[in-house]
Every structure is written in structure tokens, then in C-alpha cells.
Amino acid sequence: MNDLLDQFNMLNEYWDFSNRMEKVLHDVYKENLEKLVLPIDIKFVAENLGFDIYRSNLSFPSQVYGWLQEKTISLSPNITYKEQQWVVAQGIAMHHLGLGGAINNPFFVKNNIDTVSVDIMSILLLLPIFLFQKDLSEYMANTDHFIGSQYLEHLCNRSQIPMPQLCFGYYIINLMLCFQRQIDFKNSGYDVMAFQEKDEKNEFINIYL
Description:
The structure is a single chain. The chain has helices at residues 2-28, 42-48, 81-96, 113-126, 129-141, 148-159, 163-187, and strands at 52-55, 64-69, 72-75, 101-104, 195-198, 204-207. By secondary structure, the chain is α+β, with helices and mostly antiparallel strands. A hairpin with a 5-residue loop joins strand 5 and strand 6 (204-207).
């Protein structure tokens, strides 16, 4: 039961991240919401939030994609466009959480609560859940056979998120949507975290393990 509560609290926090990042995007695009589409122009978002972004002429260690100092994001000269998208989103997320310093290649970093939070916020900036759902719905309407790997290739191009980070984000977003479905079931009177038994009045009640 404690594990379920821990998962509930974790996913509830992720939904809070999602709401906060969607608010950031809506505040930036409030005059032009029709332009809030995939791929997110994260450089435009950052600049509207007061960030300065530049590509450094200095060589960076292979594990470092960029650097955040206050509201200045410096980019490694050797990263791709998709990696640049990721670095800028990471810079916004780090600043949002009061962090700074190196923006690392995630495969060279030992995960902790801060890096995981930054990664999830970055995903939710570059792939807001409402745009993910819209894209998936449109994709499903135009295919007879859904193949996950093919959809991920499509989504990688649509979102301009590097594939490794996208796979992580796809997993997290699906967890969040499953969690939301559980909440919807519970609000309708059916709690998937419980099983039902009849009480002394022969009425069904929820029993928790």
C-alpha cells in the first residue's frame, strides 16, 4: 500500500509539473495560441521569458551540452538541433526549480530527484500532454496498424526531441495518463486501487489492501 501511495504522490507531482509548464507556454503564446503547436519553438519561449541564448565558441566536455547561469543559456558548439531544443528546455526547467550550472548529457549523469524533475519538466515543455494527445489521435486516425516504434519515429520528428529523451518522456506521459484514468474511474465511483465486498447491509464497499 505504501508503494501505491508513493506512486500516487509521484504522479500527482508530475501532473503539477505539467500544469506549471502548460501555464508557461500559454502565457508566452497568449496572443497567438494557434501557434502553440509541435514542434515547440523553445528558443522563442525562452527569449519571451527573458533568457539569453548563445552558442559558445569554447569546447565543452563531451558530457556537457550547455550551461545555465541565471537567465543565460550557453550551448555547446557540437550539439545537434534536437539536442539544442533539449538544452534550452532544460535551462528553463532548471531556472524554474532554482537550479543552475552544467546542463549534461543525461547518459553521463547519475539521476537524483533534481535531475529527474528537470528532465520531466523539459519533456512537458517540448511535448505538452494536450499536444501529445492531439498528435496521437491524428496519427491513429490515419493508420490501420499502430506500431509503437514507428509512432516514436514520427513523434521524434514532430516534437524535435532527441530519441533517447523522447522514449523516457513517452514512458512518463503514458504513466501520467494511466494515473489520470485511475482518478477518473475513482471519481465515477470505481476505485482501481481497491476491491469491492458487500457489507452487512449487502451494499458494495471498497476494501484496500
